[in-house]
Design brief:
The protein is mainly alpha-helical and 112 residues long. The protein is 58% helix and 0% strand. α1 crosses α4 (52-66), α3 (39-48) runs antiparallel to α4 and α5 runs antiparallel to α6 (87-102). The radius of gyration is 13 Å and the shape is globular.
Length: 112
């Protein structure tokens, strides 16, 4: 797991990302805003479902499709924001990323 930690993320990474962020599913809207998704896109997702896990998945899909710089580091930055406040998770993901970097596990996914 976390094989794409240093490279660009793609829709192929969705399951891995969802697994890592599962516990913050109730904050999916704020994470989406921090990932620079438009509020109108997030509102559309919210109108389709009240299930926060499903909303998190759809928000991440939207981000992966529309983002030019989809990396773990960008995601970690969004978790560290004041509006999300998931500092411990951000630190854990960063440590995981550093561990993989030290071991030379760099892979770059196609972003499109």
């Amino acid at each position: 797991m976390f094989g794409t930690c240093l490279g660009y993320l793609s829709l192929d990474s969705l399951g891995e990302i969802l697994e890592e962020l599962y516990d913050v599913n109730s904050k999916w809207y704020n994470v989406g805003l921090r990932l620079k998704l438009k509020a109108s896109a997030l509102d559309k997702i919210k109108s389709y479902s009240s299930d926060s896990v499903e909303c998190l998945r759809e928000m991440l899909k939207e981000w992966l499709i529309s983002c030019e710089d989809c990396t773990w580091q960008v995601l970690i930055g969004s978790l560290r924001s004041r509006s999300v406040g998931e500092y411990a998770l951000a630190k854990r993901l960063e440590e995981k990323s550093s561990h993989h970097k030290e071991r030379g596990n760099y892979t770059k996914s196609n972003s499109g």
